[in-house]
């Protein structure tokens, strides 16, 4: 997921616009009027705190189920903001001590019937939980069918929305992290992945889209049913439904080995068609770059798709069908980084899912760093450095190992990205990219925890990375170094001594390789890397010519500040 980041400057502009009578401040008007303010905008998240309590939402019994398949049908009536639905859930009971089958399902629907293994059954539906008592005779496999209708509640970031823009109808969903249950009954735990069959029925003028591959379109009088099916498992929060007055266009992506092709499909409302053709034009390039860096696109037997939706804050990586806000489609590729980020999620978050929501930096930090990697491949090292610089906020609060209450904080996204950048510096490029490939290959179509990633990183690099991950995942903040240096002339030339002190509060000291540039008066440079692993460090260097300046971490590999204090030269 990426969401709009607004800082003080934009708030001032917004205020001016509101005061001067501009009632709607769209991103496209930002594009037109202020083409260069984006880097200023992208300096601070302006976003409500997002929190939830997993323990209240997920019962112990739910963890003892493994859902294999959801067969979902939605008959949409956007005019009435109403649907008729059915959900058939097939799964396995992993632990027979449970006395009820528990799922998540909001209690605001009219439930017409509930079946367990084809027999009508009693149930309880209260708050966000749905429970069927278990008789003794249940076999390993269960099949629950729930027939229901109603109007879904708006919950979380969006949930299920019957929306409209410029007179066009647009129905869509955004469920992350735990709001899929606001529109279908499910075991809403990210590591219980399942296959999906989705049938969406709407007026025949509407195009309906979901995860996976389109199996068929059936017409019945003035109604059309689109049947979508996945061949790879999906986490419930990534299950998506879109149905709108979409125009479609598509491209083709060929796998790196040349053996497979897959459609890349785009769905936008008619007034965005031309603009989206410009904005979306890099997708096949991005697919290629990431396939080379991480391994082949993991859903190649399905598709990649992008559908316009109306979440004004940003974009969402619903599996194989990313939702992108209308406001981000301006025809000037102004929000290319969002599109890159959502596509990167298909490796990080979708194929390799988070084990729990505490592991969210494996989604967001990885996808954020992938943006920088893409720019590096396209435009070189400087693009990598400048992208990472933009993602360095000096107020990373909270830790990556325990990001709650705000699992969508800048710490999760940007510090998470920086941890990968620093890991790359710590282990070197060839190990780093092997780590990414191996991690992807090992955990694709499944889920991984932070510890799983650490284990892969250690195995591949052959390094003990306990301290590295401990200092970056378990502490707030970043390196704060102050340094000074002095030069003494001697018979051989000059002796320069640098005194480095870490003065952040916690941890007492970070350990890191520190690149240092010594600029000599004769115009030459000496570059050296020192491994810093104490609060105070003295470095000595002897040179024939005099050193006139000292630069620490010149290429920006470290999340830290390096402040030069008075130096006697
Ligand atoms: Zn994201």
Question: Would you tell me which CATH topology of the domain at 60-243 applies?
Answer: Immunoglobulin-like
Content-based structural category:
alpha+beta
Task: Please give the count of helices.
Answer: 13
Principal-axes shape call = elongated
Helix content: 10-25%
The named CATH superfamily of the domain at 60-243 = tricorn interacting facor f3 domain
- Beta-strand proportion: 35-45%
> What kind of oligomer do you see?
single chain
Determine Rg (CA atoms, Å). Answer: 26 Å
DSSP strand count: 31
Main β sheet profile: 8 strands, mixed
CATH-derived architecture of the domain at 60-243: Sandwich
Low-confidence stretches: 17-51
Q: How far apart, in Å, are the first and last alpha carbons?
A: 50 Å
Bound molecules: zinc ion
CATH class of the domain at 60-243: Mainly Beta
Overall pLDDT metric: 91
Largest sheet, order of strands side by side? 6-5-9-3-2-13-16-15
Summarize the structure in words.
The protein is of the alpha+beta class. Among the domains are: 60-243, Sandwich (Immunoglobulin-like), CATH 2.60.40.1730; 348-473, Neutral Protease, domain 2, CATH 1.10.390.10; 479-564, Aminopeptidase N, middle-beta domain (Immunoglobulin-like, Sandwich). Helix content is 24%, strand content 35%. The protein has 13 helices and 31 strands. It has an eight-stranded mixed beta sheet, with no helix packed on it. A six-stranded mixed beta sheet has the order 1-21-22-20-19-18. It is elongated. The model is unreliable at 17-51 (pLDDT under 50). Bound molecules: zinc ion. The site of zinc ion has 6 residues, from helix 7 and helix 8. Zinc ion is lined by residues 1-2, 341, 345, 364, 367.
